[in-house]
Design a protein that fits this description.
The chain is built from no helices and eleven strands. Strands 2, 4, 5, 6, 9, 10 and 11 form a seven-stranded mixed beta sheet that branches. A four-stranded antiparallel beta sheet has the order 1-3-8-7, with no helix packed on it. β4 and β5 form a beta hairpin. 0% of the residues lie in helices and 48% in strands. It is mainly β and 127 residues long.
């Protein structure tokens, strides 16, 4: 069974922090780029961050760079998203995905590049 399972979501006040986890089973994340995406009802799913298959390159969407940090623990086959200084507008369901770049070994923040999706974890930022 090929699975990605997100965890670590919850409710936090503005300015607070959360760490999301994306645990893979049935395959190794070392063979994929891994991305974090988020979605609000009524909106398209948008890219948040991505780490390359080598773990040596990272990408952040505008508004996340400087607040969010993506990392990978190959031994645990898990990718993390550390989120700091959270804002109300960060409220969304967050999904991780194993990504297959169409060309090369880059880090595509594209839903079309997803080979596998997790089920999502809710992040709510409110007073």
């Amino acid at each position: 069974q090929l699975q990605l399972v997100e965890s670590g979501g919850g409710s936090v006040q503005p300015g607070g922090s959360l760490r999301l986890s994306c645990a893979a089973s049935g395959f190794t994340l070392d063979n994929y780029a891994t991305g974090w995406f988020r979605q609000v009802p009524g909106r398209e799913r948008e890219g948040v961050s991505c780490i390359t298959s080598s773990g040596k390159g990272t990408i952040y969407a505008d508004g996340m760079r400087g607040r969010f940090t993506i990392s990978r623990d190959s031994g645990e086959n898990t990718v993390y998203l550390q989120m700091n200084r959270l804002k109300v507008e960060d409220t969304a369901v967050y999904y991780c995905a194993a990504l297959r770049p169409r060309y090369g070994n880059g880090c595509p923040l594209e839903t079309e590049s997803a080979a596998y999706w997790g089920q999502g974890t809710q992040v709510t930022v409110s007073l």
